[in-house]
Here is the input.
Amino acid sequence: MSKPIARIYQRVSTEGQDLTRQQLLRANAEAKGYQVVATYSEKESGTSEARPELLRMMADLNEGDTIIAEHLDRITRLPLDKAQALMDLIEEKGAKVSVPGLIELPEIKLEGIGAIVFKAAQEMMRDICLYQCRADWETRRERQRQGIEVAKAKGVYKGRKPDTVANAKIVELRAIGYTIAKIASTLNVSESQVKLILKKAKAEQTTEAIGGP
Here is the structure.
């Protein structure tokens, strides 16, 4: 009897974070009898729909596959309607999601009204979890905003340090032909920020070309 197929998805939000703790997923999956055929790892925001490794995994999915992630928020922090659409697409492909300790429901063969009720209960639990993933992110963003406002009022706010990695990525994507709108969507930033970074990069290149200050 062949082993069930698993695909592991692991994500962190910034370059400064690492994926070490999530790498235990493979060992745990194999210990449970899965055949892990691929691991998809990336450092992207869960609020972005254009994550390269997520898109690659979705394209690779086959019927009967199981996606394993450390937490549901590793897969998505999208608004509820978009998160539901992502999960529905996974289901349409005949695949499912498994999150240790959260979504590990046993395979239960039911028919008729029992099957309908069980499926509805699964979907309700899933949607509650998806809502919480987004709500946690929005709460953290709001606390950050409030902290900045307090710091500004006290005159101690120095602004955010430039994200040199993200800035370099903006310039890199522009160089290979991405539009400003596509860069903003891919990196989950505003178009005005993209324009500002590109303007600064162009000014720096001009300064270097004429020999610097």
Notes: Residues 5-133 form a domain with the Rossmann fold fold (CATH 3.40.50.1390).
